[in-house]
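Example: DUF2878 domain-containing protein.
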Amino acid sequence: MKYFKTPEFLHEVFGEKQSILEITGTILFALVGSWVIYSVAEIKLDNWRAILAFILIADVLAGCIANFTLGTNEFYTKRPKNRLIFIAIHVHIIVIAWLLSQPLDTALLMWAYTIVAASVVNALHGKSIQGFIAANLMCYGIFLLIYLSLPTWFLMVSLFFMIKVLFSFAVDHYRQSA
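Written out as structure tokens, the predicted fold is:
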């Protein structure tokens, strides 16, 4: 695959190098996924809260795919402190819940589980067990989301948020096998 240097202001999103296929796939998933969630949610984009919420939803979906790319993975592998900051600042699910009047206690529970699990996975960086532990914690997280009986659209957003932070981002997908 042919890679090109990404502009510096996009390094936190796409890393220092990226391919047209990966950028296209990321943007396409964010757009199509946002449209699907918008269709299911039946929320009107007629106020600033709904518009901001859907911008954040698109960001969650884009990050879910972008964090699996070689460029993004390499960027954060070289910057472990930035990886911790990235995990810590992801409060999207709480803000989306607040903006779209979903129960904040449920959003806080999902957020806390995701951040703690992602932190555990991140602490295993460089260990061969990292992917297995991440998959295991992701599966428990899916049980949690199903148990919470969320509206379909919020379940979708929550699931992609969890994938984005816990599995897509916290795992080093391209580490050299030891």
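Residues 3-169 form one domain.
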